[in-house]
Structure formats: structure tokens, C-alpha cells
Design goal:
The protein has 154 residues and is α+β, with helices and mostly antiparallel strands. The chain has a domain of 105 residues: Alpha-D-Glucose-1,6-Bisphosphate, Chain A, domain 4. 21% of the residues lie in helices and 35% in strands. A hairpin with a 3-residue loop joins strand 7 and strand 8. This is SRPBCC domain-containing protein.
Length: 154
């Protein structure tokens, strides 16, 4: 079981071969997000992604495991939106209280050569590489994001 405390946290840093605006769009446009907001082997339920990117706006999506049909609905509230640099939002299941939900911060930094460094920080869940849970799920999703960005940056 994943530990959930206010002190628990982890960070994943990635460099993408794509301009920052493209990475921002992948995080903030429903059609783009639907392509990668899931680990490899899991799918997004068609039509389930809804994004209202503004402070206080909400998002929702549902992942589906095609092997057994199990669904994983996810919701959150945007706390900070600073295009195309920073997103801060909660990450929870429907019905979870927003004030205690894990908090995700995504910072995007331009690098030379139309590349972007993404610093993903999740506070409220302890996770680590090889956990086959939250950390590995996000890491796998970022692999899909890298593939999507590479295809679109061409």
C-alpha cells in the first residue's frame, strides 16, 4: 500500500526534445493529455478527460485497465497556473477532500535547442523507483509523453 502523509514526496526530472510550449500543451489540453496521462498498458476511457486550466479550475479523467476493465477515476483542482512555466494541482480520487489531497507541482524550464526540462514533484505520497505503483506509473506516463512530444516536434 502506498504511504500517504504530508511529509511523503518524490521528484522525477525529465528533459524532453520539444519546446516548452509543446510540453505545456501536453499538460493542459484534453486531447493531448488523453494520449499520455496513464502508464503503459493502461488506457484513458474515451471522452473522460475534462480540463479547466485556471486557478480553482478542475480536471478529471478515468484510466482503464484493458486486461480486467477496472477503472481508476482521478480528479483534482488547479492551485497555480503560470503558462508555460508552472502548474500546481491536487491529485485525488473522486470524493477525496481537496485540502488533504496529494499536491503535484510541474515546473518547465526552457533549454537550448528547443528542449525542455520538466521537474515533477508530488507531495503527499511516498514512492520510489521500482515500486510498481505511483512512482513507476508516473515514470511510465512520462515515457509516453516523451514519445508523443518527439512525434509532434518533428
Amino acid at each position: 500500500m502506498t504511504e500517504r502523509t504530508q511529509e511523503a514526496q518524490f521528484t522525477i526530472t525529465r528533459v524532453f526534445d520539444a519546446p516548452r510550449e509543446l510540453v505545456w500543451r501536453a499538460w493542459t489540453e484534453s486531447a493531448d493529455a488523453a494520449e499520455w496521462w496513464h502508464p503503459r498498458g493502461i488506457e484513458i476511457k474515451e471522452g473522460s478527460v475534462a480540463i479547466d486550466v485556471r486557478p480553482g479550475g478542475r480536471y478529471a479523467y478515468t484510466m482503464v485497465n484493458p486486461a480486467d476493465g477496472e477503472e481508476y477515476p482521478t480528479v483534482g483542482v488547479y492551485r497555480e497556473v503560470d503558462p508555460p512555466r508552472r502548474l500546481v494541482f491536487t491529485w485525488a480520487s473522486p470524493g477525496d477532500p481537496d485540502d488533504t489531497a496529494p499536491l503535484i507541482t510541474v515546473d518547465l524550464r526552457e533549454l537550448e535547442g528547443d528542449r525542455t526540462e520538466m521537474l515533477f514533484h508530488l507531495r503527499g505520497i511516498h514512492a520510489e523507483p521500482g515500486d510498481e505503483d505511483v512512482y513507476d506509473g508516473w515514470d511510465s506516463a512520462f515515457d509516453l509523453l516523451a514519445e508523443q512530444l518527439t512525434a509532434r516536434a518533428r
